User: Fold this.
Amino acid sequence: MRREPTSTAGTVHRLTLESALLGANLLGDPARRIIDVYVPSGHSGAGVPLLVDLVGYTAGGPAHTNWKNFGENVPERLDRLIGTGAMPPVVVAFPDCYTRLGGNQYINSAATGPWADFLITEMVPRVEREFGCGGQGQRGVFGKSSGGYGSIVHAMLHPDFWAAAACHSGDMGFELCYLPALVRSLRAFARAGGIKAWLDEFYARPKVKDDDVEHLEMLGMCASYDPDPASYLGLRLPLDLETAEIIPERWANFAKWDPVNMVQTRGAALKALRALYIDCGNVDQFNLVYGARRLRRALERAGVPHCYEEFPDNHSSVDYRMDVSLPFLAAALASPPART
Assistant:
């Protein structure tokens, strides 16, 4: 049952892509990936902008096209926004980027695989060939949490590819959002007898608890930011296992991927974007609002045009913020580029 039955429904197509890049990942994850693609009602997709949805950790892109209770999935939200004229038509791709560790950060990793390259050189070109959408100056990326992280980092690293980006509650300010959770995970790994033993127990459990998910996510962060190909599944921690002291050289590998730090050297690239949107709940339970505020200040110092908003909520169930970001991105991508 659709929440808004009067909206004319677009079509969700399902593609399957056999990646040439993901086959050798240390996690043993499959190279065959699903891509759900939303095309608005009355359109073939040709000539309209392309948006790519990067979902948060523990999810895959098709989770956003599934039926959703007490609300709208993303295609239904797009039907409403496009149908009411709140935003121009767009095609939206929902790639499955799930991994054995519960997800990834959409960057290249020696452990999880070359996910940035997969998105840019395999996934997006496949969708654009299939539907005639997007192309130079008409591609945008958006996401929340880890997906928000992926969006802002992709915008900094690949401004020649992406023309617009939206970051909802993205991971940043790593010492505030990751270190407390990493310390909690140390206890769990120690009780199990190490990372491998803990993972063996995790995969054998009939029920996954919230604490288990947090520990798995921290391993995912280690695999993304500081992989060690010589270790089990490429995993090592940036903390001393006995004292929880930071190991400087390993934490430095984390810190260089923090958007708050990256903007110091990569921020100028964001000036090439046609639209940049950032928001975060002002009571985000993972302390991400403080990282978002630091990023905002850094962008202001660098003279990067952007829209920044805080809203009265936490990190959970905030898909309604897409009602702000998606029209913002779509309008920028659909308009003629500014003359230089």
The CA atoms of residues 182 and 218 lie 6 Å apart. The chain is about 35% helix and 15% strand.
